[in-house]
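Late entry, evening session. Most of the bench is empty. Finally got around to the prediction I had been postponing all week. Sequence below, unchanged from the version circulated by S.P.
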Amino acid sequence: MGGPGSDSIVASSIIVNAYAQGARARISWDFEGENPGLDARAQADRTAFAPLVETHLANTVLTNGARLYVDHAHPEYSSPECRTPLEGLLFDVAGEEVMRRAQRVANETLREPDAVMLYKNNSDGKGNSYGCHENYLVRRDVPFDDVVRAMVAHLVSRQIIVGAGKVGAETDDALASGATYQLSQRAEFFEEVVGLETTMKRPIVNTRDEPHADVDRFRRLHVIIGDANMSQIATLVKLGSTALLLAVLEDEGVSVFPALPRNPVRALRHYALDPDLRVTEPDEDGRTRTAWDYQDALWQLAERYVARGGGSVVSDDPAQVHMILTQWREMLDGVLDDPASVADRIDWVAKRRLVEGYRARYSLAPTDARLRAIALQYHDLRPEKSLALRAGLREILDPTTVREAVHKPPTTTRAFFRGECVARYPDAVTAANWDSLVFDLGHGPLRRVPMMDPRRGTAALTQDLLEKCETADALLTALDG
């Protein structure tokens, strides 16, 4: 992003504050209980540094249950909790619209040289990377070592269908490889298999043990390795495939999963450098596998699980689970046999086609700076500038539904209660976080309402109550009763 004086923190704050003012969202984030230093490993790495909790930067809570804030040096939208992958996709795309609206409001007050530009991507071309994080609710009784053992192969290999694509390289190792195009924007920045940190020594599996829920029942798998997708179907498959495999782990255990790559970090990087999907890496059983081999095995594992009656934990709608499996399969087969057939779904394929077309037209070298500009323009959030919107990507969400999700929370999680309270009682809700709301009624002490189960606080459980309570006073009295 760009902005006033090229100061990214100032520009990010302008974006967050512009949206908060335009949406009249002035509810602060409650940092009570925030502890990113909790480590899921029995023997934590005492040399690791947890991310700092920056309480002084711009931060607000939206009526759709989301959080909008400045994270280090970029604006970040954290979607509300969602019940299904399709719902997760909806609120991810709603986040794009939130950012567009914030950008328009901010730039109305800035002169052209200082206009803020926003890109939904994962690196700045100068060696700085920022993630598109995913979070999955997992039962606490699943050992964390089993989570690592089951998920590493998927997180390393899924870039062949959900990678966002990248021209060139930024890190020393990737530059030394002579890379001209990578499947993933994030892969070259990862250095560890397991770890707590998120901005240096990045791990494939992050150990942050901060469930934002009842710690005795739940853990949160905090996935930092994903690319930011412009393709709606890629986002759906990224969320859906990962959720399905975690459901397999919970119900069938770790023994059904394929063997890990012997060197997962090397495999992640080597797979990213191979658009032809031919590179193999040895696994712990002595076999060699391509990234496609891993994804094929994992798809079959998920497909058998659903055929045996699993999948409802991911979505109660069998059609949604079928769509995830079908798209996952079609993307896998297409990316290997006929990449052009899935250019409407796989970002790295769509972007590469644009880049190669421009390169051929102007006879450019593979590392020409103009090609990097094309790759960046793919992620531009301005509709009139975004190349992703011109790439023929398939859309599955209704634009009206997306616009509604900008303001309205999902009905299927505790985000409904949070978002509705923010909308109905804006003067009484003084702060919020994922697992509680803080009310200031203007008399007596502040009142905290805990929400320790993400699956409660739904419309089915709270809508009637909220409609009966015209004031926050009435709501808290009813809750006390």
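Two things to note before I forget:
Residues 85-107 form the longest helix (23 residues).
The two ends are 49 Å apart (CA to CA).
Will write this up properly tomorrow.
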